[in-house]
Design brief:
The structure is a homodimer.
Chain A (H helix, E strand, L loop, with lengths): L2 H9 L2 H4 L3 E4 L16 H6 L7 E5 L3 E5 L4 H7 L5 E5 L8 H8 L5 E4 L6 H12 L4 E4 L4 H4 L12 E2 L2 H4 L3 H13 L7 E5 L2 H8 L1 E2 L12 E4 L4 E4 L7 H9 L2 E4 L4 H6 L5 E4 L6 H6 L5 E4 L3 H7 L3 H28 L7 H13 L4 E4 L4 E4 L23 E6 L1 E3 L2 E2 L2 E6 L5 H18 L2 E3 L4 H13 L10 E3 L8 E6 L13 E4 L2 E4 L3 E4 L2 E11 L2 E8 L17 H18 L5 H10 L4
Parallel strand pairs in A: 1-5, 3-4, 5-6, 8-13, 11-12, 13-14
Antiparallel strand pairs in A: 1-2, 2-3, 7-9, 8-10, 10-11, 15-18, 16-17, 17-20, 18-19, 21-28, 22-23, 24-27, 25-26, 27-28
């Protein structure tokens, strides 16, 4: 089927559903960052393969809304499809609601599949459309009938994430969750509906393989005062897991049974996070129930790592540090640069990681951006874009792994030869910001947005900035990006707490020229008592040399130089025992004092 | 009348009002920071003279809630009154709602005078009490009948703040206000109720003398699409002002007529800020009207200074700088320290300021804190506490003036002789923070809480902090503390914009030992275009040397030393022409490069 034929097939369903338009977003019923192929309907209907975008189909027109990362790619992939490209955040681009208003009339109805819209998204859209008198209606997923070779919902087996890694039993975690929400209200029996896949995996100490780069499994969880219900396709539960869940008192239901289950609930209060819960499940909850919209208590419990998780994470950091040193040494001394490309680099790095024990996979798509590609923040080399390296400029390398012991995420900017003064300055100013944030000490109850400026202050003085966050949380053998805390310019009320991990990754990107970013993972640890209470600080746990060659030493303060030298000393001390003589020799140089 | 007799007289009104308790806060109907004596009922009923505190009287008990600044003073002043002291934010202290719950029973009623509670305060109290089944009722001000020598509502004459200072006419300002709120909603005629005295004074280009340290006049303002209504005691309007207001199309009403006026409104939408509007006026608004609670559009218009205001402010800064240099030179060279006290210093400084043209008064109560008194953040020397100076330690001096050209606010920490290493370190680290904030460059749409850490970062590394904000806005010949922006740890969604002024005043306070704070006023100015848009920076507009003697130079970075030297050069260049030979000579030394 061509894209045109697919759109025609979709339009043929409009009449029976009594709709004049249909909207297809890029998410799944769990609002996942990576989406299983079953839910890639937007890709199927449009041919556009980017990770972000929304397609709107009316009876006579079709449009794709996507962001600046994908303008070029989308324009190419939409050729010959009759789908028009709408460039988000560009002056003059109508919003989807504006577009629908101009194409429909008051009284018309727009359809969505409520499973792939969060409560917040559906509600916002409904409010926008209602000001024009346009109605929003949830209909059954229309792709089941028209997408003939639609991939199945993933059916990969679930496995146990052992206590030696998880640190706390499912029983302990469920008690902690109940304790959190029992504090909210005692007047009515309260239960929580959990839709976020990483929260379910964390709670049950189970992992899966349904989602790209994340060890997750497609399911819903419902925790009442005395019961735990897991909704998952039974094929995915091996016998050992079945026994494990029985012992933990978890009742099993089919994945699709979540809807009738919610419809039959008696008079209780259901807690849910409206950003993580899809609109169809919200609407399924029996009218007898109260619904309270909350930030999930699991997000915070999960973000504060326990001692066992922290110890394991340190092991993961040593493994990943060894991988990186082997790779950097190879690139520096053994590789013939002229024979290497961005994709060959990616394969080399993958092979080194895959050789590590307990390696499960990459934690996100590796970014290998050479030269101008380093300025494309979510660049992924493809056969069409793949570039042969040369002995000059920067290679920006952002990568990470899923080990049973933990999830890693590291960025290094590597000089392949001669650098311009501008490249050196950008590199050094970004490193300054990275170090200043890493050195911060702050009182308890500090939010990430209060610290963000420490990483940006030096580039801001030269009127440079980056539009991504400075830091995100990371799961324990879970999602690479996890909340609820962050270090960003934007407000986030969640405070930074001991036991949380967060990345430190300022960058500068100059389109057509180069990009530089330096990223380590920081663990938040107590710094001691002081005026008005307790203080916290960061411990850098990523172990990998930061290239000294691009540094303009005069731009660093003495305190920053000391930090770098001490960090490098620790990198050497912790990695050297795992390396052979040549690698140790290389590392000794790479970590020698500046 | 003794305090006991006063409380008995108040209790005698309970029966006719059908209340079991009455709450007396420290505010006026305009939620002013400084309160005219007429509204000092809390002081009258309790004998406690501190600026912050709330008295609660039940049929058999009485309590005063106040914060840590006033624990000692309140304990002394409450002796023999039967009023119990409740120390706020101390473990075990009940809230006022908790206290009332323990003394009253469900169905009982608590009275307040709705004029001296903001909408937010009254609503919060009502919600807290309602969970215990206790009712809240607004009653007429009971002090009119029992407080025999109650001071009158201030009747001081209003005067015109000339266009040469204000920069924009009242007509222009009213247009700008209407433009702001007309954007909000066009479907219903909209009006704004203005209760904040500084917003009224700014809008009408009028000033008064009703409130301590602030050139304000007691009034309400109501702006509709086509009309402007001012509610003020007619005695306060001289003939010239009357003509001025007539020409500006402002209709005059008596101050108390605000209530019947609001009761008779027809079907319009009334905008008001629930933090600045008293509960009695809210309740007076006709039920036919819609009420929309907003942040006042005037606050933001007022905060962004126009060119005329900025030019005048520079003049005010030169005047105040001359005052400070004369004072500092006198203290350094001419005064006999052993004959001076905190209060004599205050008088000396007042005399110097009063000699400046267009001086209207202090902009707040001068803080002269010697030695351990410097650690008391809102210290005000009294005959009982006044301390004779000695040639050692720090004198913390925080003061400011109201000039027609603008409002000033400056803090210097002055060494009177030998200092301890700790005093020098604290001084230097606070100065570092002050300079780092002053040097910041930041993109448009940055909020103050994002920059706050720049001023704190160095003391936090030694586990020190201060619990006040780092910076507040300042009026143009108006309130010393004005919003809506700020630089604080706490969230504030208002962004920093070119034309705003903000203080930069980090400090460290060590009880029983010393305090140090350095405060300048910063003007936000464009820094130029750059990546992703425009950038802003600070221009320090306060002109006064920062004492170099306590500085430990090795703790400052080269960039910080350069900032200080350049700042001092500017201070000298701009002040020297206004000084005599001896003062210039002293200033040349005080501003010589570090």
């Amino acid at each position: 089927m061509t894209v045109k034929e697919r759109i025609t097939a979709l339009r043929a369903t409009f009449k029976q559903n009594k709709i004049k338009a249909f909207i297809i977003p890029s998410t799944d019923p769990h609002m996942s960052e990576y989406v299983a192929p079953h839910w890639e309907a937007r890709k199927w209907i449009s041919g556009f393969t980017g990770s972000a975008g929304t397609v709107v189909i009316t009876e006579n027109e079709a449009g794709l809304w996507t962001d600046s990362r994908y303008f070029l790619q989308a324009a190419e992939q939409l050729q010959g499809t009759d789908i028009e490209l709408y460039k988000e955040k560009i002056a003059g681009t109508p919003t989807i609601a504006d577009f629908l208003k101009s194409k429909l009339i008051a009284g018309d109805t727009v359809g969505i599949d409520g499973q792939v819209f969060s409560v917040i998204e559906a509600r916002t859209l409904q409010e926008e459309l209602s000001t024009y008198g346009i109605l929003l209606k949830t209909i059954a997923d229309p792709f089941d009938s028209i997408w003939k070779d639609r991939p199945l919902i993933p059916q990969n087996p679930v496995f146990i994430h052992e206590l030696q890694y998880a640190g706390k039993t499912t029983a302990e975690k469920i008690s902690a969750i109940r304790e959190q929400y029992e504090q909210l209200d005692n007047r009515k029996e309260t239960a929580i509906l959990v839709s976020a896949l990483d929260e379910i995996a964390w709670t049950l100490n189970l992992r899966g393989n349904d989602v790209h780069c994340s060890p997750l499994f497609i399911s819903y969880l419902f925790i009442t005062k005395s019961e735990v219900h897991l909704f998952i396709m039974p094929e995915k539960i091996p016998e050992t897991v079945k026994i494990y869940l029985e012992e933990a008192g978890v009742q099993l239901h089919g994945y699709q049974e979540i809807i009738p289950f919610l419809q039959q609930l008696n008079n209780i209060k259901v807690l849910l996070n409206p950003s993580q819960t899809n609109y169809a499940t919200l609407n399924a909850i029996s009218a007898e129930c109260d619904i309270e919209e909350i930030l999930s208590p699991i997000a915070l419990l999960k973000a504060i790592k326990n001692e066992v998780e922290i110890n394991n994470l340190h092991h993961a950091m040593v493994k990943d540090g060894v991988v990186m040193v082997k790779f950097l040494k190879w690139l520096d001394q053994d590789a013939n640069i002229h024979h290497e490309t961005e994709m060959s680099i990616e394969h080399k790095l993958h092979a080194l990681r895959a050789a590590q024990p307990n390696f499960f996979g990459e934690s996100f798509d590796t970014i290998v951006g050479y030269g101008a590609h380093g300025a494309i923040i979510h660049y992924k080399a493809t056969p069409e874009t793949d570039m042969v390296l040369e002995p000059k400029g920067f290679l920006l390398l952002d990568s990470g792994a899923q080990y049973f012991e933990g999830t890693t995420d590291i960025t290094r900017t590597i000089p392949l030869g001669a650098l311009t003064q501008e490249e050196k300055e950008d590199y050094t100013l970004i490193l300054k910001g990275h170090i200043d944030l890493a050195m911060a000490v702050f009182p308890e109850r500090t939010r990430g947005n209060q610290l963000d400026i420490l990483a940006r202050q030096h580039i801001l003085k030269r009127h440079m900035n980056y539009l991504h966050g400075t830091g995100h949380g990371i799961g324990s053998f879970l999602n690479t990006h996890e909340g609820p805390h962050s270090i960003r310019m934007e407000d986030n009320p969640v405070t930074l707490q001991a036991g949380m991990v967060v990345t430190d990754e300022p960058g500068v990107y100059k389109a057509g020229s180069h990009g530089t970013r330096t990223e380590n993972i920081l663990l938040i640890v107590p710094s001691g008592e002081g005026m008005f209470g307790n203080y916290l600080k960061f411990e850098t746990i990523t172990l990998c040399p930061i290239d000294k060659r691009p540094i303009i030493k005069e731009l660093l303060s003495e305190e920053e130089i000391n930090w770098l030298n001490l960090y490098h000393q620790r990198v050497y001390d912790l990695l050297a025992p795992q390396l052979d003589y040549d690698e140790r020799y290389w590392l000794a140089n790479a970590t020698a004092p500046l």
